[in-house]
Amino acid sequence: MRWLVGWSCAAAVPVTEERRTLQPVGAQLLWGDPDPLWAVGDWRPDEVRIVRADPPPLAYGKDGPVSRLAVLGCCGASDEELRLGLVAARGGALRHLTAWPGSYTAVAQVGRRITVAGDLAGARPVFHTPWADGTAYATAALPLADLVEAQLDIGHLAALLACPDAPEALGDGTPYAGVRRVPPGHALILRDGAREIAGYEPAASLAVAAPRLEPAQAVDAVRDALVDAVRARLAAPRHAPETVAPDPGPVPGMGPAERRAARGAPAPGIGADLSGGSASATLALLAAGLPGVPGTPLGHGTEAGERLLAVTFNDLTAERGGGAAGVPRPREAELERARSIAANPRLHHVVVAAGEEALPYTELDSGPLTDEPGPSLVVAERHRRRLLAGSADHLTGHGARQVLDAHPARLADLLMDRQRRRLLKPVAALAKADGPSAHSLFVPFTVYRAARRLARTPYQEGVREVAERLLHRRFEDGPDAVAPVGPPGPLAAGGAVDASVAALAWCRPGPAARWLTGEALAEVSVRLQEAAVRPGPLERPGERRARAALARYATDHRVFEQAAEVRSQRLHTPFLDNQVVRACRALPEALRVQPGARASVLRAVLAGAGIRDLPAGWGAPSQASHAAAARTGLRTAMNDLLALFDAPLLADAGLVEARVVRRALRAAAGGEPLPLDGLAELVSTELWLRRLLQRRGTCWTGADAPRQRAVAGGVVPRRAL
């Protein structure tokens, strides 16, 4: 895990010798007192850049002028562009620090003023906490928790399980008491230890609408942003990973790639996922077609013109849905599309086949401690097998669905803008999504009524409604929800229509809320009621829900990166870059809500880059195999999961009852239609708590180092909620 950490203290506080000796374990000092900054972890030399600019008058430190900028991560800007950004930030234009291609964290220091800019998605967050008459900040929460010897925030864990994508419940908290998160799209500004949170994006107004881009112009902007994001990765120096163990030589049935993966090291150079989906295929084709230096400094990866390693994961245990005669099953069609795309002579295709050993919920006892809990902990080992076959710099299509697809709540935004006819196509597609049924005729009326109800519901009223639902344990559509028009009976249970109608709300209970105790739900309900008293946001419901969903996904993806981390490998997610997120947000809502909008936008992106020969069925959605693999993994790991919840720490904290969770696990493994993602969140949170309490040592060393690590005492305190 890589992170940066520093602090700002009041000028009146002297820097003692003990304070000078306090530093993170394994740190690289970027600049020193009185406001030091460290980079911690296995940062590459090209990932840490520091530039200076001419300071304004009176901005002097004891070592001379202080006006500098540190950029950590993959940044496509030149040194001169970084200096211009520092000059702009010195005058207060913070947005310039986030406008370069790539994914990075920028820290600007001008005199005693320090500015730390977070990203728009939340994949590179910034945390802060009061410390030593000032403020300490970091890009990871656990080091700050160690610094102030923080205890667990049980209320935040309850909110994380009850309403994971509701900012009203989570606020700016973290699992550690006293450690706060800077919201996405904001920057942390420190002056002599005093902190300020400032947004750097222009605020939208409901009274005066900003000029909207034409669809063609908006798609061109997405293309340019994606091309720049991929080019930033191609322009970076190539790296050959450290060899963990020597190559044992020829092994029957194993090629060089298989032997390297077995040793635990990725391939040199650059690679990409190639799942057969539109997002990963777009990045792989762009990376293979853009000009750049192929291979590595050692000459790897240049044979036969191949410049990109494309990795496809083939799950041999996934249940495959049947189809009509002559029609490929969904998973088979995905693999066939990946093979067709990999016919590109610039791609070297590797298929990673895995059986029961790579199912979700396997090898839960052998994983690293992540900064926060996340549902990806139960699938980390599954994806680590795929990443081991990848390259030192590996491109993934994660986040494309969240930045390109329209959240169902955007239908209410169209109604607020008096664009009713734009609802015809998405509503008609929903009516066909779950197949023909007796209720298909009434689906358009049901969805339209739900969208109209959301458009007319004030923010405070919508939040109070969810607080009441949690307090009275109403997790299904009740009397206060939109009733279907037509004959009695549910819509397709668990189908696309149900999910879309449930998402047409200001916020909603999470899938794991039904298994929490009444006391935990009551505390989350109080949080929501307090949020409803405060002034509402100046956003439409669809915009707010889409931003919250993206922030939640980015947080989960950050946990995934830490849980499935491979030594000497960097995962790149261009769709979560600032410039790509901005370009995608500029897409007109009428374009977003159309069926197949993501595939059509990415097809236009590839066409603009000169790539038009795509396989049949490119862009077809397929998520059924993931749910099937999760259910199969539950059945396979049932004994281990029941043992995990025999005496769970979540029960000690008063969040769940062990017997309730065990009963839900058995029911889900038996095929009952329960939310599998909710069970994954419960299991992941329990795993994270156990790993946190089993850790040894702290993140700090020195004479003034904290005497205890985070969650001191090694137990989860039971509290009366």
Structure in words:
This protein is an alpha+beta fold. The protein is built from 26 helices and 21 strands. The protein has a six-stranded antiparallel beta sheet, covered by helices on one side. β9 and β10 (113-117) form a beta hairpin. α4 (154-162) crosses α17 (518-533). The radius of gyration is 25 Å and the shape is globular. The model is unreliable at 57-61, 296-304, 320-328 and 477-493 (pLDDT under 50).
Question: Which helices and strands appear, and what pairs or packs with what?
Answer:
Blueprint: E1 3-9, H1 17-21, E2 23-24, E3 27-31, E4 37-40, E5 48-52, E6 60-61, E7 64-65, E8 67-75, H2 79-90, E9 102-110, E10 113-117, E11 127-131, E12 134-138, H3 141-147, H4 154-162, H5 167-170, E13 180-181, E14 186-191, E15 194-199, H6 215-235, H7 256-263, E16 267-273, H8 278-289, E17 308-315, H9 330-341, E18 347-354, H10 380-388, E19 391-395, H11 400-404, H12 410-416, H13 424-433, H14 443-456, H15 459-471, H16 496-503, H17 518-533, H18 541-563, E20 570-572, H19 578-585, H20 589-592, H21 597-608, H22 624-636, H23 638-644, H24 649-652, H25 658-669, H26 676-694, E21 700-701
Parallel strand pairs: 16-17, 16-19, 17-18, 19-20
Antiparallel strand pairs: 1-4, 1-12, 2-21, 3-4, 5-8, 6-7, 8-9, 9-10, 10-14, 11-12, 11-13, 14-15
Helix pairs in contact: 4-17, 6-19, 6-21, 8-21, 12-14, 12-18, 13-14, 15-17, 22-25
User: Considering DSSP H and I runs of 4 or more, what fraction of the residues is helical?
Assistant: 25-40%
Q: Find the structural class using helix and strand composition.
A: alpha+beta
Alpha carbon gyration radius = 25 Å
Widest beta sheet: strand line-up: 3-4-1-12-11-13
Low-confidence stretches: 57-61, 296-304, 320-328, 477-493
Q: What number is the mean pLDDT?
A: 85
Q: What composes the largest sheet?
A: 6 strands, antiparallel
Sheet-strand content, in percent, reads 5-15%
* Number of helices, where a helix is a run of at least 4 consecutive DSSP H or I residues: 26
User: How far apart are the first and last residues' alpha carbons, in Å?
Assistant: 34 Å
Say how many strands there are: 21
Any idea what the shape is?
globular
